[in-house]
Amino acid sequence: MIKNFKWIFVASIAMVSCTQDEIDYSNPEPEVIVSAGDADFSKYVALGNSLTAGFSDGALFIAGQNNAYPKLLADQFATVGGGAFNMPLMNDNNGGLLLGGTPIQGVRLVFNGSSPVPLPGATPTTDITNVLAGPFNNLGVPGAKSFHLLANGYGNIAGVASGQANPYFVRFASSPSTSIIADAVAQNPTFFSLWIGNNDVLSYATSGGVGVNQLGNPNPATYGANDITDPTVFASVYTALTDALTANGAKGVVANLPYVNSVPFFTTVPTNPIPATSIPSASAAQLNQLFGAVNQITTALGQPNRFVNLTSDDGNPATVEANNPLLIVDESLPNLSAQITAALTPTLGATTAAFVGGLYGQARHARSTTGDRDYVLLTTRTVIGTNQTGVPAPFNVSGISYPLQDNRILTAAEVVEVKTATDAFNVSIKNIADTKGLAFVDVNALMNQLSTSGVRFGTFHMTASFVQGGAFGLDGIHLTARANAYVANQFMTAISAKYGSVFKMYKPESFPLSYPASL
């Protein structure tokens, strides 16, 4: 029915150079007289998740850690009285983790000229059973949600398998029973940064909404790994964190959260990547007949149509047919399996009609309408057009005749859930920052700018485009070294505005766009 279909990934992407841009130093900038202002940077601690840790290209590795925005901040704090900034460095630039010699996290990604791939020939060498001696100033823990920072035993290796502990924190926790916030407060910090909360919605989004919106559930101990944190819980946790960090009079800077669906992990793969040339005209006609029958059912029920007419190659080289949208499952739709089965039984027979009804009961074509847009996960690119195992032809082509399942798509309804929670979190962060007199960074606005017009510095234009935009690494979520320098500047700008500090700002264009295979 349908020809073999191969979706070419990011065909327009050219290899991005790992070298620095040419920089014109012919006109040196005037000397900056730095000052701590009203802040004391002698003991700085950074709390957060993977963004704080320096995670990039799908892994944590030494080069990424050294380019993390807290490390860049600490380097500038050192010019105004800041002290040492110790980090729980990985063993190598491969990335990945071992547990007693068994790999539990993969190595970093590199670009092979057409797509990201795991670093060829690399294996992890960092074993979490080898606990590091602290204390550490960078307490960013990949995967941590807001309430994890308060959790005792989050670094207990016995809880890794069950998800009750974090393997990255296991490596450097002061004891198996401690918490991240306890290890921070124990250092009696004079200044802190706190950027936490992304994972409270991100894991839900990157799983395609395979999780639960825990709105109204006050007990995070009952949450699943991919659930959305209740906003009241988040506000309580954030208050407890800032109370603990400011108890000794420390000053600090906090950042709000971006809309996670604005990053390349969600925006790179379009909702309509199916070329007309990939669907024979006979196949398109059969699918259109089937989808039309379902649309008749929804019309009779007073519901919107779920499918559009597919286009196929008309054989005329002078015309270019539009691409076709992906076929997806939307669990927010009323399930019409019974109605579809009943309508098709006279023509298809009871058995086939029941199969088709079950397959398309909550199926529809993906939409790209502003305000009602679906987002295709970056990881979904590898399954589009492949044959679904165990499903008979002609219903087995993923994204064309076989609907992409819930874990492959963040639907418009799920986007609303993520945005609503993020907005609530951000209100709490800003209110608490104002109450505590903390510097505040509007990262949401910064990331929105990256995903729309982009930002310019020097001769470089940085955007959120995958690979070539320069802001996001090869996992489509985490920042490049160049973007970390840009973010560090935004943090310093906020600190200066609040505490009267003066720093020398970084030139983001002097930082690499990407990490080469050889480091």
Structure description:
The strands form 7 sheets. Strands 6-1-7-8-15 form a 5-stranded parallel β-sheet, sandwiched between helices. Strands 2-3 form a two-stranded antiparallel ribbon. The chain contains 14 helices and 17 strands. By secondary structure, it is α/β, with parallel strands linked by helices. Helices cover 29% and strands 10% of the residues. It folds into 2 domains: 44-267 and 413-510, Rossmann fold (3-Layer(aba) Sandwich), CATH 3.40.50.1110; 276-365 and 375-410, no CATH class. The protein has helices at residues 50-53, 62-66, 69-77, 167-170, 180-185, 199-206, 231-246, 264-267, 281-300, 337-348, 350-360, 412-436, 443-451, 481-499; strands at 44-48, 97-99, 102-105, 109-111, 116-118, 138-140, 191-195, 251-255, 327-329, 363-365, 368-369, 372-373, 375-376, 409-410, 439-441, 455-457, 460-462. Mean pLDDT is 92; it is low at 1-26. A hairpin with a 4-residue loop joins strand 4 (109-111) and strand 5 (116-118). Helix 6 runs antiparallel to helix 12 (412-436) and helix 7 packs parallel to helix 12 (412-436). It starts with 43 loop residues before the first strand and ends in a 20-residue tail after the last helix.
List strands and helices in order, with pairings.
Elements: E1 44-48, H1 50-53, H2 62-66, H3 69-77, E2 97-99, E3 102-105, E4 109-111, E5 116-118, E6 138-140, H4 167-170, H5 180-185, E7 191-195, H6 199-206, H7 231-246, E8 251-255, H8 264-267, H9 281-300, E9 327-329, H10 337-348, H11 350-360, E10 363-365, E11 368-369, E12 372-373, E13 375-376, E14 409-410, H12 412-436, E15 439-441, H13 443-451, E16 455-457, E17 460-462, H14 481-499
Parallel strand pairs: 1-6, 1-7, 7-8, 8-15
Antiparallel strand pairs: 2-3, 4-5, 9-10, 11-12, 13-14, 16-17
Helix pairs in contact: 3-14, 6-12, 7-12, 10-11
InterPro entries: SGNH_hydro_sf (IPR036514)
Protein name: G-D-S-L family lipolytic protein
